[in-house]
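Dear colleague,

Thank you for sharing your sequence with our group. We've completed the structure prediction you requested, and as agreed, I am returning the results in plain text so they can be pasted directly into your records. Please verify that the sequence below matches your submission; if there's any discrepancy, let me know and we will rerun it promptly.
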Amino acid sequence: CRLMRGKAALHDRFIIVDDKMWMLGCSLNEFGIRATTLIRVPQAYASKIISSTEQWWADDDLTEQL
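Please find the predicted structure tokens below.
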């Protein structure tokens, strides 16, 4: 797990597994408590977001290991 430093560009409503991505209608800490939705992000958009996320993940100036 990694934590984004400063004002995060990515919210905790995204779940990325391999090359697929889903979006929750609520934050992860509310999942199972509130009624919510789980939506699969179309691959054309998911690929772009995943690419950016991987760059952020590898950048120690933007993220830190927990």
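Summary note from our side: The mean pLDDT is 87.

Kind regards,
the structure core
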